[in-house]
Each structure stands twice: as C-alpha cells, then as structure tokens.
C-alpha cells in the first residue's frame, strides 16, 4: 500500500489488485521468477521492453524474467509511482511508473523509469494478468534512442 | 470489422469498441485530430511513442496529434493487426499492433509496427478511452535503439 496510488474504483477488487501488484514488485526484488508470474494467465500477452513485439505465455515470460534477473549481481529494485487502478465487473487495468534499479553483473548500474500497464480478468474467481505492456518512449531527433533517462 | 480481430468478450460492448477503434484509425488516416480524440476522456493518460513518460489530457493529445500529422505530406496509414478486446461491466481494454506508414514532409517514408494498448471506462453511458499506451521495444545490445524495424 502506498500513498502514491490513486484509485478510481474503490473497494475490494482495487485493494486486491494493489496487493497483487506490490507482491509482484517484491517477487522481482527477490529475483523469484515463479512468484513474479504467479498471477499471470497461461496465455498472457506481454509487450515487453525488449524485442520481439510480443512475448506470449506465462512460461515464456517466466523464463525471460529468470534470464533478466541473472544479469543483476544483487537485488532488482522496483519502485512504483503514480499507479492508477480501475476495476469494473470481471475486468480491470492499472497503469503507472516503475523504477527498475540495481547493479548488473558487468559492473554497471541500472536506474530507469519505465511505463507499466497491466490488464486483468477474473478467471475462476481469481484476478489474472492477461496483458502486460512495459516501455520507455524514444527520442524523435533522428537518434531513435530509447529514452531511459526520464523521470515522472 | 476485420478478420484479424479476436475477442474474448462477445456481444454489444466488444462490437462497439471495435467500431470505435476503427473509427480512430480512420480519423488518423484523415489527419483529423478532433475526430481522433472524440472518444477520449478529458483526463486520459497517454504513454506515447515520444517523450515525456506521460502526456495528460485530451486537449494535449489532440494538439500533439495535430503537430504529428503536420509531419506527413499525405495520408497517415494505420493498419491494425491481432487486435484483442476484453470487456466486463464498465471497464474494457484492447491490445494489438498498428502499422503507421506514410510519406513525411522531409521526403522520407515511415513504416513502423507499434504496440497499442487502449483502456476504456463507460462514463455516462458512453465508452471513453481513459488510458492509452503505444510503444516499440528497444535493442538491449548497448545501442539502446528503438526497434522500429520489427513485424508482428
């Protein structure tokens, strides 16, 4: 629970989704790929920071996460900001910023704010992530460089 | 209506949202900024291709679109693929790919597949876009270049 979280949908579902999202950041911090995808639908569709355009399925996302965690020499920092959650019936979505930070195995330091959109459906009585979209914008100045130096 | 569109939520709402999304692509093709934001909530939050991390409000998005349209010398091509729509109660979301293409005023040709996530809430009986997230991934090879050369 963080004061940085606003909700348009009050009540049990928004609380539950907020807990899920914070549990996900804790799983990332602990570099626990299985826990990080525990609430993902089997056929989740992920638009990720890295190519290709989409990554499909919980197993693929789990394996990608495990490979990514291995590029950090310590914990993977994950700091949420300006998270908004909207729920209605069996569908919900959340969007906000996430600062990923930590020391990499090559000795460099990573600290980047990314945009995060999570879309949920209640399946068999439990909320599952069916779509995830993470990104940074890119500079339109001809360099086409990813804008990894922005702050919210 | 296109055969490239799959739906997990059958019925009137998904049909209505599909019509809205196709109307939006037609507004883009016609470079009509007012029509392109007709179904956006006043306080829509946009994670766009270009910095900053977020753009807020329908008026800002309209003005950004108008500036962007002015960089094309002719129509702005918009081709949707693999669009999935999920609805439930008063909340819905859609995700897929969109190929933006056309001739720019500097003589260059643009053709890029982007990822598109649209999140909706029914406000006063009408579906409105309350969140939009468009992006391309970027190469993790040290170049940090936006991946504008991918196909779905």
Task: Explain how this protein is built.
The structure is a homodimer. With about 150 residues, chain A is of the alpha/beta class. The first copy, chain A, has a single domain (about 5-135), classed as Roll (Nuclear Transport Factor 2, Chain: A). Chain A has three helices and seven strands. In chain A, strands 1-4-5-6-7-2-3 form a seven-stranded mixed beta sheet, with helices on one face. In chain A, strand 4 and strand 5 (about 90-105) form a beta hairpin. Chain A is globular, with a radius of gyration of 16 Å. At the A-B interface, strand 4, strand 5, strand 6 and strand 7 of A face strand 4, strand 5, strand 6 and strand 7 of B.
The number of domains of chain A is 1
Percentage of residues in helical conformation of chain A: 10-25%
Q: Report the oligomer.
A: homodimer
Biggest sheet: strand arrangement of chain A = 1-4-5-6-7-2-3
Reported for the largest beta sheet of chain A, the result is: 7 strands, mixed
CATH fold-level name of chain A? Nuclear Transport Factor 2, Chain: A
Number of helices of chain A: 3
Assigned CATH class of chain A: Alpha Beta
Q: List low-confidence stretches of chain A.
A: none
Q: Largest protein interface? A: A-B, 45 and 45 residues
Distance between the termini of chain A: 19 Å
Structural class of chain A: alpha/beta
